[in-house]
Structure formats: C-alpha cells, structure tokens
C-alpha cells in the first residue's frame, strides 16, 4: 500500500460515475429488499481485488503457528502485508481485534478513494461489519475510521457510522435506523480466521481442512470495502450505473451431512437456481449469468452437487471458465464472505453483464443472490419487475 497522501491517491484512481447530481437529505424511506452495488476493493491473500483487476488465486500454505486437533500443521491463506497498528488496548481487549484493525487500516485509503464517485456535496454513512466480541474494541475501530475520514475532504459529509458483528446479509446490515440515513453507504467488512478459536469452530462443524482430511476449508482472512447505494422507494431508477442486488433467495433443506447421494442435494441446487435466476419471458432470450461465485467447492460433494444443475440450466456455463470459488481463491474469509463474493462477482464484468452468487456450505440452507446490471435492466423498470416479486432474504452465519 502506498504511503502517499490520500489527496494524491484520489487523483490516481478512475472513478465510476454516480448519476445523481443533487444532494439528498437524510431519510428513512428506502427499499428494504433492494440495494445497488457501485464499486469495491478488497485485501485478500490473493492480493488486492478491485474493479477490472482480479488477481490469480492465492497459494494455500502450511501455517507456521497453527496446528489442528490432530497435532499436524494446518493449511492457511494469510494476507502477506498489512499496515502494522500499535494499539495495545485492542490486544488487551481482543487479540483478534488487532488483526482486524490492521486489515481495515490497510484497505482504508483505497476505500476512501471510492467516495470520489459521490454526488457533489453528497453525504454518506459507514457500516463496519466485523466479528468483534468487545464493545470497547468496536468503538476504538470506529473511532479510528472516523478520524481517518475526518482528515479528508469527506469529513464533514459523513453521516451515521456504526458497527455490526455479522456481515452475512447486506440488506439487514445496511438498513437505516429509525432516525434515517443517506442514500450512499460505505460498507467495510473484515474477518480473520488465522487463530485457534476460529480454527476450532471450523473443526467442530466438520469443515476444516487438515492432514487427516484433505477436503475442507483452509482458514483465511480478508478486508472488503463496498460502495453501496440504498434505493429510494419513490424512484427505483435513479442511476444506470452499478448492479442491482435484491434480497437473497434462501432454500432450507435437510442437514447436508445426513442426505444420501441420490439426487437430494442436486434437487436443492436446481430449485435454488430457478428461484434466484428466473427464466425470462417466452418471447425473450434467457441469458445465463456472465459469472458465478461460489462460497466453497472444497467441501466434500459440493462440486458434483453444483456443476450438474448449472450445466443442466445453462449448457454453455462452466465453473472453471465462468466462475470462482472463494475458498479456493483466497481461503475461507469468515464474516467477510458475503461482501467478498459480491465484489468477486462484479470485478471482471462489463457494464451490461450480470452475475450469480451461490452459498452451499451451510448445513441446513443454501442461498442465491443475483447481481443484475442496471445498464441492462433499468434497475427493474425496463424488466417490469416489482418489489412484490422479491423473496424475503434468509439469514445465516458465514463464519
């Protein structure tokens, strides 16, 4: 990360245009089932992920510090370089909080550069999603972020700033409070599973990759910043830029570990695809998503469960050419999963392309989220969609 002035850095990055020239006052009447994703950047073990720039997958390596319950070294995907933070209070409150602070501080300059796309004098909110067990630690991180923003030209334009422990569901996480909020929101997500506590949780769920079990998830970490726009209830077509994100489709099912290999899992994925990406009208051509982002294909059986229904639905689709699996790309990022999936989905896309995000690792539910290009769909107006046709989102736990 460059140590140059943030004002110099702001001039170096081409910014997407947000076509909303007027300043919108604080309000609370935003759609609960729809967001618009405009821009993003992420720090991962694979490198820095940004619009138009997707690094090659990270190499899973043996951790020097962590060992599994079997006593052998664990495979992990750690971020190589972060900005060191000398914050002794965080180490005392929660050792993991210090690592999250380092990840966030490393990505923060790039995150703030995205604010260049805001309308002139437009205000914005910040939501931090990070699994912090200490309220004091959360307050310290928010204070540091607020201070960093205050040192830029955007300091006086910052509205609400708050913490959310869970980053699984963007619509719930970014919903405005009763006091209202602003149309644009900078969503910061961070998590690190490179520690004994989170490794133990993965192991108890039967998901940990270890010497005695070659399939599973390698602990990872990530910090993600997404520039989102809340959609007004009065005007659902405020901008032709970005990607429309409606509430997730969640499919509940029998425990994954208890199902037989007689097509049960395949039927779940098939049904999920039909609901997440409905067929087009009879007189129009049904287009496949340009990109599919999975949560984990390293879990036993998931490749077979997903590949079959995908090729049945879209014969030209291929997970190798058209998709990516987060666990194989940068390790398992915990609560940063959803935000990272969303950015991985749109980063390589053109303005007219759309993507599908799938989550199949949860034991009792699977999830699908469609990212539709606003340039093609007219944010729902041209497609003739209505809010009543959007399913309620599901909730889960990405860690």
Automatic annotation (TrEMBL):
Span list, region Disordered? 238-262, 380-399
Q: What is this protein called?
A: Uncharacterized protein
Q: What is the lineage of its organism?
A: Bacteria, Pseudomonadati, Pseudomonadota, Gammaproteobacteria, Oceanospirillales
Composition bias type Polar residues, residue spans: 390-399
């Amino acid at each position: 990360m460059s140590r140059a002035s943030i004002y110099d850095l702001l001039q170096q990055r081409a910014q997407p245009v947000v076509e909303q020239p007027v300043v919108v006052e604080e309000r609370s009447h935003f759609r609960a089932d729809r967001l618009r994703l405009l821009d993003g950047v992420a720090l991962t073990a694979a490198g820095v992920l940004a619009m138009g720039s997707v690094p090659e997958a990270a190499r899973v390596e043996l951790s020097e510090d962590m060992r599994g319950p079997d006593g052998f070294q664990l495979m992990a995907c750690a971020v190589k370089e972060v900005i060191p933070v000398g914050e002794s209070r965080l180490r005392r409150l929660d050792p993991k909080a210090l690592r999250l602070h380092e990840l966030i501080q490393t990505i923060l300059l790039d995150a703030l550069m995205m604010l260049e796309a805001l309308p002139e004098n437009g205000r914005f909110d910040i939501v931090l999603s990070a699994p912090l067990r200490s309220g004091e630690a959360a307050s310290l991180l928010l204070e540091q972020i607020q201070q960093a923003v205050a040192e830029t030209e955007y300091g006086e334009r910052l509205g609400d700033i708050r913490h959310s422990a869970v980053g699984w569901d963007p619509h719930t996480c970014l919903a405005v409070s009763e006091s209202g909020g602003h149309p644009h929101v900078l969503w910061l997500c961070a998590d690190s599973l490179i520690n004994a506590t989170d490794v133990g949780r993965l192991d108890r769920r039967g998901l940990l990759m270890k010497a005695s079990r070659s399939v599973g998830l390698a602990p990872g970490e990530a910090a993600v910043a997404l520039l989102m726009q809340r959609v007004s209830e009065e005007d659902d077509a405020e901008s032709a830029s970005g990607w429309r994100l409606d509430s997730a489709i969640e499919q509940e099912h029998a425990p994954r570990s208890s199902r037989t290999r007689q097509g049960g899992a395949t039927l779940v994925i098939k049904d999920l695809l039909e609901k997440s990406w409905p067929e087009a009208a009879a007189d129009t051509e049904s287009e496949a998503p340009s990109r599919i982002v999975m949560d984990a294909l390293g879990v036993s059986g998931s490749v077979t469960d997903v590949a079959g229904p995908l090729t049945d639905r879209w014969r030209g689709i291929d997970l190798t050419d058209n998709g990516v699996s987060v666990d194989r790309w940068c390790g398992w990022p915990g609560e940063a999963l959803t935000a990272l999936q969303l950015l991985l989905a749109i980063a390589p896309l053109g303005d007219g392309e759309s993507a599908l995000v799938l989550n199949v690792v949860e034991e009792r539910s699977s999830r699908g989220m469609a990212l539709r290009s606003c340039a093609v769909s007219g944010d729902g107006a041209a497609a003739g969609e209505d809010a009543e046709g959007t399913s309620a989102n599901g909730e889960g736990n990405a860690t």
